[in-house]
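in:
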C-alpha cells in the first residue's frame, strides 16, 4: 500500500542531467506565474512516462500511459492500457489494478488517500499553500528552460516514506513537466508529462 502511495506522488534522478542549478532568493515572480498559468485548469489529459529507479538494480523500470486529472471528479488516474494497469486517487477511493490483481480502499477508512490527492493536486495547480506547515520549499533554476520546486517534508508521516518531492515547471508555459519522489534509500519514481490537453470533459468512469 505504502509503495503504491509513494508511486503516485510521485513527485531526483532526472535532475542529474540538468544544467547547473541557480538558487533563487526571491521566487515570488515565478510562483505567481505558475499560479496564474494554472488557476483556470480544471481538467488535464496528457501522456506520462514513469522511470522507477532502484539503486540495487542494474536498469530502471519504465512505464508509459495516459494521465487524467479532474477537479470536478476530485480524482487523478494513471492508465497504462498496454499493461492493463490502472491507478486512481479520488475523493472516495484508492484503486490499483495491476497484473490482474486489484486493490481498493475507501477514502473514509484511509486519511492518507485524501492527503495524497491534495498533495498531487497542489503540484498540478501550483497551489503550494497546501504544503504550508508540512515541510520546506526550495527553489532553483535548472538552466534557462526550467524552474524547479523541491519540497522537503517535515511532517512525520510524510517523512517516513520519502525525503523530497521535486516539481519541475517549464519556463515556456509554467506548467508541470515532471514530478519526482525520492525515498530514504534513494529509490525514486519520476513522472514526465507530455502532449498536455486541458479543460476537456473527462468521463467519470475513468476514476472508477
Amino acid at each position: 500500500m505504502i509503495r503504491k502511495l509513494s508511486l503516485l506522488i510521485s513527485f531526483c534522478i532526472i535532475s542529474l542531467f540538468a544544467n547547473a542549478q541557480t538558487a533563487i532568493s526571491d521566487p515570488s515572480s515565478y510562483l505567481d506565474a505558475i499560479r496564474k498559468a494554472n488557476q483556470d485548469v480544471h481538467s488535464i489529459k496528457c501522456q506520462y512516462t514513469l522511470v522507477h529507479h532502484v539503486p540495487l538494480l542494474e536498469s530502471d523500470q519504465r512505464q508509459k500511459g495516459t494521465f487524467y486529472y479532474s477537479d470536478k471528479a476530485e480524482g487523478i488516474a494513471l492508465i497504462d492500457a498496454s499493461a492493463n494497469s490502472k491507478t486512481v486517487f479520488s475523493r472516495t477511493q484508492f484503486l490499483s489494478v495491476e497484473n490482474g490483481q486489484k486493490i481498493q480502499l475507501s477514502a473514509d477508512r484511509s486519511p492518507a488517500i485524501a492527503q495524497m490527492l491534495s498533495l498531487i493536486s497542489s503540484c498540478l495547480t501550483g497551489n503550494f499553500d497546501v504544503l504550508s506547515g508540512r515541510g520546506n520549499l526550495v527553489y532553483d533554476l535548472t538552466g534557462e528552460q526550467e524552474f524547479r520546486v523541491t519540497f522537503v517534508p517535515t511532517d512525520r508521516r510524510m517523512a517516513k516514506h520519502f525525503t523530497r518531492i521535486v516539481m519541475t515547471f517549464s519556463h515556456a508555459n509554467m506548467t508541470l513537466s515532471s514530478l519526482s519522489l525520492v525515498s530514504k534509500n534513494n529509490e525514486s519514481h519520476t513522472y514526465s508529462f507530455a502532449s498536455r490537453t486541458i479543460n476537456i470533459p473527462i468521463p467519470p468512469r475513468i476514476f472508477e
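note: The chain has a mean pLDDT of 81.
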